[in-house]
Hints:
Structural class: alpha/beta
CATH superfamily: NagB/RpiA/CoA transferase-like
Strand order of the largest sheet: 6-3-2-1-7-10-11-12
CATH class: Alpha Beta
Largest sheet: 8 strands, mixed
Number of domains: 1
Number of strands: 12
Helix content: 25-40%
CATH topology: Rossmann fold
Mean pLDDT: 92
Number of helices: 4
Distance between the termini: 32 Å
Amino acid sequence: xxxxxxxxxxxxxxxxxxxxxxxxxxxxxxxxxxxxxxxxxxxxxxxxxxxxxxxxxxxxxxxxxxxxxxxxxxxxxxxxxxxxxxxxxxxxxxxxxxxxxxxxxxxxxxxxxxxxxxxxxxxxxxxxxxxxxxxxxxxxxxxxxxxxxxxxxxxxxxxxxxxxxxxxxxxxxxxxxxxxxxxxxxxx
Length: 188
């Protein structure tokens, strides 16, 4: 077994265990976005990229709605495999259509460049590493955004999605912090 194959198998096993933990947390979730909403409010005017929750993902929409009162808010649009995401402006109640992988995206709107990116994830650790769905979209996107200027990558997850260690590779982009329904985790 090559080193790459071993890493892929470890990521697959970590992803499966994390999906199960997330599903269990989703079933018992209460006020999920309270800490995220407060944190974004402390950074007024910065453009925010959120996401439209799917399956058992923690729901950032309350925080995105609050942010839209003072800043531009966008959601990710997948334009092609292997490419970074782009963010189309979103407003509460805007017309949506189904995008790639079943995520809703605005029917129309300007493209925005966010200063804050709320990143969905499958699992995270205390070092700011995240396990995504395996497509690399957020890694490519954060790399591109960071090369152009300051951006804060905020992982948003249930506390139950925390793992002891996430297997990483050189292309994985770290999170600046993780916000859960229980509080804020600053990487060590």
